[in-house]
Write a structure and sequence with these properties.
- There is one protein chain.
- With about 260 residues, the protein is α+β, with helices and mostly antiparallel strands.
- The chain has 2 domains: about 1-115, 2-Layer Sandwich (Beta-Lactamase), CATH 3.30.450.40; about 160-260.
- Helix content is about 60%, strand content about 20%.
- It has 5 helices and 6 strands, in the order βββαβαββααα.
- The protein has a 6-stranded antiparallel sheet.
- α3 (about 115-205) runs antiparallel to α5 (about 225-260) and α4 (about 215-220) packs parallel to α5.
């Protein structure tokens, strides 16, 4: 572009519902080319004339302004009046009739830069750039689609794992609940039986306060008084443990119902 007499080039591309300045290339007074990556939205503060950009976007036609003169009403304002660039050219980059970008070119001090020959060269370069840019955008879109597909596959795999885990939990809780239910249904009768036996022992001791030596020795050996106090507490702690297991099992089932597979 700089061989065609351009001092400043700005590339704008559409992003979502607005246009963005993607890159800006300028030639300094020392002949050094500086490239800046902008990636900023088009506003009235941008280093390009916004009405020129809007005109090209809406008409899909190139716009040439020389010596700050144009027959198109309303174009000369803002940036053009402030900086008064002597040669301005703005072109749409079209690929199969689709607008893929806009290129803004200017020379701030020299008029008549964009001669017919130079304009032909620039338009040819822009046509090639439009194809390349469209291919790059399609590639980026394809890469994004592949990434989204990969993420979806990961989510499906995770969902399947969670579904399998829920099925496993349901099976385990069912296996737990069956014996727990059996124990829970029999623990109270066991407590009643133990109480009956203890009552019977108390009755024997009341009716026969002087046991023979054999019974006395056995009573001391098994520490009957300790068993009498501890056995009911032991069965009660078993009862509480069974209830705790049942509550945990029910919580697992309820958690699975509240968090179904996505």
């Amino acid at each position: 572009m700089f061989n065609a007499g351009v001092q400043k080039t700005v590339l704008l591309i559409p992003q979502a519902e607005q246009w963005q300045l993607q890159t800006m290339t300028e030639m300094t007074d020392n002949g050094i080319v500086e490239i800046s990556k902008l990636s900023q939205p088009l506003t009235t503060e941008s280093p390009v004339p916004t009405r020129v950009i809007q005109y090209v976007k809406n008409t899909l036609e190139p716009l040439l302004i020389d010596e700050g003169k144009t027959e198109i009403p309303g174009i000369l304002e803002g940036y053009l009046l402030k900086y008064n660039p002597q040669s301005v050219l703005c072109l749409p980059l079209l690929n199969q009739g689709q607008l893929v970008a806009i290129v803004y070119l200017e020379h701030p001090t020299t008029k008549g830069v964009f001669t017919p020959n130079r304009l032909a060269i620039i338009r040819f370069l822009c046509a090639q750039a439009a194809v390349s840019l469209q291919n790059a955008q399609l590639y980026d879109q394809a890469q994004q689609a592949i990434q989204e597909l990969h993420q979806t596959q990961q989510q499906l795999a995770q969902s399947e794992k969670m579904s399998n885990l829920r099925n496993l939990v349901a099976g385990v809780t069912n296996e737990i609940n069956q014996p727990v239910g059996f124990l829970q249904g029999n623990i109270q009768p066991a407590l009643d039986y133990v109480q009956d036996l203890l009552d019977l022992i108390n009755l024997y001791q009341s009716e026969y306060p002087q046991p023979n030596d054999t019974i006395k020795a056995k009573t001391e050996a098994i520490d009957l008084e300790f068993i009498r106090e501890d056995f009911p507490r032991l069965l009660e702690s078993m009862h509480q443990g069974i209830n705790r297991i049942r509550n945990i099992s029910n919580s697992l089932v309820q958690h699975g119902e509240k968090n179904p597979p996505v």
